[in-house]
Amino acid sequence: MKKIIVIGSGFAGLSAASFMAKAGWKTIVLEKHITPGGRARQLKGEDFRFDMGPSWYWMPDVYERYFNAFGKKVSDYYTLKRLDPSYRVVWPKNENNSGKSQIASNITGSDLLQDHETDIPADLEELKKIFEQWEPGAGGKLDAFLAEARIKYETGMQNLVYKPGLSLKEYADKDTLSKILRLDIFTSLKKHIRKYFKHPRIRQLLEFPGLFLGALPKDTPALYSLMNYADMIGGTWYPDGGMYSVVLGMYSLAQELGVEFYFEMEVTGFRIKEDNIKSVFCNSFTFEADLVINSADYNFVEQKLLPEKFRMYTSAYWEKRKMAPSCLVYYIGIDKKLKKAIHHTLFFDSSFDRHAKEIYKTKSWPDEPLFYVSVTSVTDRSVAPEGYENLFFLVPVAAGLTGDTEEMREKYFDRILERFEKHIGEKIKSSIVFKDSFAYSDFVEEYNSFKGNAYGLANTLLQTAVFKPSCKSSKINNLYFTGQLTVPGPGVPPCLISGEVVAGVANSEHLNHQP
Fold it and tell me: Is 502 found in the same domain as 403?
C-alpha cells in the first residue's frame, strides 16, 4: 500500500487525510503540536476551556455533507444547537435616527435612537420587522436581497467551490458559465448592498462578514453576499463543547478510517529526488512518502522548506498578496456569572470605516477598534466552572502588524474591556481569574503564519479560484497544498472543502500508484 504524508491536522489536513484514507492510501498525519486541530486547538486553564481559533459555526450543510461522504452524520460525533438570537450588535450611543453618529449635545433626545443594541433573531420574519423599523420597506427588500444571495450560495456550492482551480477550463461548461454571469463578480459588495438599502445599520450589518473576508466592502466581489444567506438563512449554530468538538469528531472519524497521527512532529525539510518528495524530515525522525499533502502554512513550506528551484512562487509574489486580517485575541475566565451577556456580541460602537481602513489601507494599530466577544459559557456549562464565565475577545488587526508587546496587548485589553463593562453594566476586571492572549507573534511562532495572518488571503476577484496559489505543485510531482491560502479560501467550511478537493486531485493523478 502506498503511503501519503499529510502535514498538519487543522480542518483542511483532517479532511484531506480522511479522504485519502477512504481512497485506500496508508495515511500518516504529522502535527507540530501535542493535539489535533491546528489553529482550532483548545486552550485549557483553571478548569476553563476555550476554542483558540474559530468560534462561529455557519454553513451547517457543508459539515453534514462532509460526514455524509463517509456514511456518517454530524450527530454521530457532536450535538448542535441553533443560537437564538444569532448574535447581538452594539451600536454607537450618540446615533440619530438616520443611523449616523452625532455629538449628543447637538441633537434632541427625541432624535436619538434608543436601541443601542440589536439582538439579531434566528427567525427571518422577526429580522424583517427590525429592518422595517430602521428603514420602511427594508423587510421586503431583504427578501429580494436574500433570494439573490441564495442563487450565489447554491451556485457557489454546486458549481464553484468544489473545483480545484487548476485551469479556467474547469469553469467553461455552459451550465457553470451561465450561472457565473449571475454572481455579480464584477460588482463590489458595497455597491450591491447600497442598491437595496439606505440605512447605515443595515448596510453595516450586511457588510460585517466582509471584515473577515479580507478586503474593504468596496473591494470585495458582490458574490460574497452569499455569506449573508449563510448567516440569516443557514443560521448561527453551536456544537456542544465548542468548535473543538468538531475537531475531535473529524479526528475520531480519521482514526476509524485508519489514519495514523504523530504529534509533536514539526516538519523541517524534505528529501527530493527526480522531482518527487521521497522523505519528510521532522525532529530526529524521517518518514518515507509516495505523496505529500501540505496543510500547514503554504508560504512557510514553499518558501522556507523547499529549495529555491522547487518553489512555484517568488518572495515578491507573496509580498503582493492581499491578506485577510490577523487578530488580537484574549481568553478570559471570571469568577462570577454575567447578567446581560449572550453567546456572540459584535461591538460596532465605533467607526466601522475607520477600523476597516486601519486594517486594509494604513495597516496600523487601530484607534478605537470594533471587536467581538463570545461568552460560550452562557450556552454551554461545560466550558467553565459552576458559577463562572468564559469570555473570548477578538480585535481584527492588519496582517503583518508587528509590535504586539505585552504592553500593547494590555493597552487594547483595557480599552475593549471598558467598553464591554459599560455595555453589560457591571465590572469584571477584578473578577478575572484566568487570562491569556494570542496575537501576531504567536501566529508566527505557533503556526509559521505568513505575516501572522489569522484568516488567509483576502477574497478579492484576483485572488479567487485560478488566481489563488495552486493546490498542486508545478515543480514537484507528488506535492499538493490544502487550506486557507489555496482553494477555495478562508473559513472552516472552505477548509473542509479544500481537503476534499485536493485529495480528489491527488488521488486521481496517482491512481496508477495504488495496488
Answer: no
Residues 333 and 313 in one domain: no
Q: How far is residue 305's CA from residue 291's CA, in Å, rounded to a whole number? A: 16
Domain boundary among 209, 233, 257: 233
CA distances from 347 to 93, 159, 386, 396, 422 (A): 12, 35, 27, 12, 12
C-alpha grid cell, residue 427 = 465590572
Report the SS3 class of residue 200.
Answer: helix
As a three-state string, the secondary structure of 263-291 is CCCCEEEEEEECCEEEEEEECCEEEECCE
- Number of structural domains in the chain: 3
Q: Is 413 helix (H, G, I), strand (E, B) or coil?
A: helix
Q: What is the mean pLDDT of residues 219-248?
A: 96
Say whether both 443 and 338 belong to one domain: yes
Answer yes or no: is 109 within a domain. Answer: no
- Cβ atoms within 10 Å of 208's Cβ, excluding its own: 20
- Is 10 a member of any domain? yes
Range of the structural domain that residue 369 is part of: 325-447
Cβ-based neighbours of 112, under 8 Å, separated by 6 or more: 94, 95, 96, 97, 104
Same domain, 284 and 346: no
First vs last C-alpha separation in the chain: 6
Q: Tell me, yes or no, whether 210 and 356 share the same domain.
A: no
CATH of the domain at 509: 3.50.50.60
pLDDT one-digit tens code per residue, 180-202: 878 999 999 999 999 999 999 99
Give Cβ neighbours of residue 287 (< 8 Å, ≥ 6 apart).
5, 28, 30, 262, 279, 280
338 and 290 in a common domain = no
List, in order, residues 6 or more apart from 289 with CB less than 8 Å away: 3, 4, 5, 277, 278, 279, 280, 478
Closest to 24 (Cα-Cα) out of 508, 444, 449: 508
- Predicted TM-score (pTM) of the model is 0.96
**Percent of the chain beyond pLDDT 90?**
87
Q: Is residue 225 part of a domain?
A: yes
DSSP per residue over 328-358, as a string?
EEEEEEESS--SS--SEEEE--S-HHHHHHH
Rg (CA), the chain: 23
Q: Report the candidate in 155, 164, 230, 147 with the shortest Cα–Cα distance to residue 491.
A: 230
All three cell numbers of 232, joined, read 440569516
DSSP H helical ranges for 399-475: 406-424, 440-447
Coil, strand or helix at 68: helix
Same structural domain for residues 398 and 418?
yes
Q: Based on the fold, state whether residues 349 and 420 are members of the same structural domain.
A: yes
By C-alpha distance, which of 416, 410, 310, 298 is closest to 355? 416
Mean pLDDT across the stretch 277-283?
Answer: 97
